[in-house]
Amino acid sequence: MDHKDLPPRGSFTSKFGVIAAAAGSAIGLGNIWRFPYVVGENGGGAFLVVYLLFIIGIGIPVMMSEFVIGRRSLRNPYGAFKKLAPGKPWFLVGLMGVGAAFMILAFYSAVAGWTLEYLFQSVTNAFEGKSSEELTGMFDAFREGSIRPILWMLIFMAMTAWIILAGVQKGIEKYTKVLMPLLLVLIIILDIRAVTLPGASEGLSFLFKPDFSKITGKTVLEALGQAFFSLSIGMGTLITYGSYIRKKENLANTALSVSLADTFIAVLAGIAIFPAVFAFGIDPASEEGLVFITLPKIFQQMPGGYIFSLMFFILLTVAALTSTISVLEVVVAYFIEELKMSRKKATILAAASISVLGVFAAASWGWASNLTLFGSNIFQIMNFTSANILLPVGGFFIVIFIGWSLKARIAGDELTNSGSLRGRYLPAFMFIVKFIAPIAIAMVFLYKLRVFGN
Ligand code: TRP
Question: Mutation test of ligand 1: which of 104, 238, 263, 385 has the most ligand atoms closer than 8 Å to its C-beta?
Fold first, then answer.
């Protein structure tokens, strides 16, 4: 392959570095903020079952496909499709990914801003002695404010841009390796506290006892969207990261490890949240506010809660950062490679333009609260559209591309490192990307649109 036309590419320099970077992208607010409230809204255990099925049957194959596309092409998502399928319209899938990156980064940074606010409130011990109602009021009042949510969002965006400026090796890999394991330890401590609360078992049944009568078209679509969102798939993030993975790395193993870690963390977050939700009488359908109301209650009930709460919000901020850098990197890699910008110019332009959208996301309960569509504010529209529509549609085309357009030999080559790995699963993988995954995604949309009744 000829790379003379490309700017110098960094790459991840160790096996652990690759997994840490991809897991750093996957593990974030999606696991700790989004997963619990989406489970809460969609009835608990049955949702979890559908979610797990989607992770295995669709998520992991899509992740492998993205890695294949990225490492084969060594390009950003748009350039990757242009290179692998010259003269065909597949590059539109890459462009849609770049668009989705704008939307995701905008509302995600707003939530990361809430996290910074809660870190700040932890410092001043503001949760001390507050009831669930008072904590709910505190969250609502903050979110309805006109300045703070925006200011924190902008600070967080600047932090993301700053890491991206440092480039792939010095930035992304360095920050993800150390702090993710620490986050895991802290969540486990939270779990222990949560499950030993009086009344915890009700929460565990909510999470783990499926009641399949609660499954509707909306539930299934939300489960699919959450699976895509949590694994960072469907918009080319992992195409971009795949392009930084060295040729000797095992792509299938990486996809499997990352998906397992991501799912594990989400379930651990659920185990922390739901027992506490029931123990403290918090509404499981508290939507975007759920963890911001529940976590402070748990910290109140812990010896050393002050320190734990500080540490937790610091680590959550870092987890959010290792996710947002992976989203911003998609846009930046696109600007650098396709619009021939310097990394610096690309980063500043991307972060500044996404911040404009971010301001509206952050103000969605404040001065922008009357900008609504079907009862949803701007934040909620971005959140719903990107996760439940753009990502699954992107994933649909990614598996179709691998299954039907790219020569099967190429996927086989990348997944076996040109035959040096055995890849006995390859026929099963090809069957899934050709038939199972695309048909399943299509059926979820048809089910939601009530084509099959409900
Ligand atoms: N997966 C991340 C999380 O769970 C968020 C994220 C990072 C993402 N990159 C993405 C979501 C790409 C969708 C697509 O927090």
Answer: 104
Closest CA to 222 of 432, 37, 453, 33: 37
- Rounded Cα–Cα distance for residues 48 and 74 (Å): 35
pLDDT tens, 186-206?
999 999 999 999 999 999 999
Closest CA to 66 of 243, 229, 223: 243
Backbone torsions φ then ψ of 377, nearest 5 degrees: -85, 180
pLDDT digits (tens, 9 = 90+) for 284-295: 889 999 999 999
Local confidence band at 15 (pLDDT 50, 70, 90 cut-offs)? confident
> Which residues, at least 6 apart from 412, have a Cβ–Cβ distance to it below 8 Å?
423, 426
H or E, element range at 308: helix 305-338
Instruction: Enter the tokens of residue 422.
Output: 């055995």
The residues, ordered by sequence, that sit 6+ positions from 120 with a Cβ below 8 Å of its Cβ are: none
Q: What is the 274 CA–ligand 1 centroid distance (Å)? A: 23
Minimum-distance ligand 1 atom for the alpha carbon of 31: 4
243 CB burial (10 A radius; 0-12, 13-18, 19+): buried
